Amino acid sequence: SQNLSHHEPTIQFLLEVVEILTNYVRKTFDRSTKVLDFHHPHQLLEGMEGFNLELSDQPESLEQILVDCRDTLKYGVRTGHPRFFNQLSSGLDIIGLAGEWLTSTANTNMFTYEIAPVFVLMEQLTLKKMREIIGWPNGDGDGLFSPGGAISNMYSVMVARYKYFPEVKTKGMSAAPRLVLFTSEHSHYSIKKAGAVLGFGKENVILLKTDERGRVIPADLESKIIDAKQKGYVPLFVNATAGTTVYGAFDPINDIADICEKYNLWLHVDGAWGGGLLMSRKHRHKLSGIERANSVTWNPHKMMGVPLQCSAILVREKGILQGCNSMCAGYLFQPDKQYDVTYDTGDKAIQCGRHVDIFKFWLMWKAKVGHNSCSYVMSSQINLYSAFHNRYCFKSSFTENLNDPQHTNVCFWYIPPSLRGMPHGDERREKLHRVAPKIKAMMMECGTTMVGYQPQGDKVNFFRMVVSNHAVTKSDIDFLIDEIERLGHDL
């Protein structure tokens, strides 16, 4: 009793934090709430109405800590808002949120069964289910959850190198010839980063040409493999992207797999963005041939709406992650424990400590009846893309960047009235290049919605709208179009 009363202020504090969080969730789904209350970095650093980011030498009261919690949410971005279209990961799933709360409360680490028995088993069972969905026989293989798609992609390059040149683990890159990697010119930059970080060098990451829809041209891959071999290089690894970051393009996996088998190369599929379509009976054909891959990246925190972070690296060959990464640290991975130590998965990771990313995903899968619910949600999201496309393509103020996109990415230019009669040329290009950044700036100042923009190749800045938030409706799509027109009309 005395113990309980001693902790009462702390328990009361937690209850008040829960109230702050539940109010935030409620407002996030309220479309009258702003997506963000934007302030420039210098404004936040100088302090906002009692909200001070500086760390003081004296502890603050719990009352002030509650104020800090409220203000942190107030000045942040509501990525779960139905009108947030800025990133590939968005939304706020209530089951997933509950899973993340429980995970933080448990506050354990994924390196051994000894300290995370339930989470380790959940991870193994879920990874097996994901491998089954990919199409690997009996779901056999290996995998783990990593701190994001970029790290999952890096794992794929590491295990490919270990498969063909295992001595690199002990002797370094001097034990291997000059190795080259191949990836689409539209692929995620993490493949180039993996080349730099792992010692291949950016020059040895060879970019492949794409067609008008942003898909790798297989003939260019074969031509560049032959060219690399003629130069004395050793082709090692090909990355096929299932859902590119900007265009949402799906590389032709079967054609690429044929070439990889012909030249004995490791095939990785980066399905960070598009992997969720494996759950859709209607759309999984876009990843046809993925079962032929040696490894796959799949981010449930994107299309499937699992709270950040949740990314899986899945490998067809069992044991290769362990062989590649194990260091047999005696203080963690003792072989003489009283349980089956094959469940101590930490030694196959490049990290030591590893966050529990599985529980929220496992819980959402259970709550939404896994495959069936996800299939419906994926189809609904792609239908929303169609609604967006059908609305803007009939407007003179919008011009499509990409015909017949394969995913929920919609890339387009807004053409303000001042540019509609202007002949095509350098002056028009320069002015059009400035339109998207100006509209985005006004959008953030207003706080009504958020959507991304970027150039691509020789194309000037264009908007990229993506649907990954399961709460988005057609009215939100209509709002985005109307808001872009409202903000850009006088440019």
UniProtKB/TrEMBL annotation:
Modified residues (N6-(pyridoxal phosphate)lysine): K302
GO terms of molecular function: glutamate decarboxylase activity; pyridoxal phosphate binding
PROSITE patterns linked: DDC_GAD_HDC_YDC
Keyword Heme carried by entry: no
A GO CC term assigned to this protein in UniProt: presynaptic active zone
Keyword annotations of the record: Decarboxylase, Lyase, Pyridoxal phosphate
Entry annotated with the keyword Lyase: yes
Domain of life from the UniProt record: Eukaryota
Cofactor: pyridoxal 5'-phosphate
InterPro entries xrefs: PyrdxlP-dep_de-COase, PyrdxlP-dep_Trfase, PyrdxlP-dep_Trfase_major, Pyridoxal-P_BS
Entry's Gene Ontology BP terms: gamma-aminobutyric acid biosynthetic process
Family under the similarity heading: Belongs to the group II decarboxylase family.
Subunit (UniProt): Homodimer.
Protein name per its UniProtKB record: Glutamate decarboxylase 1b
Organism of origin: Cyprinus carpio
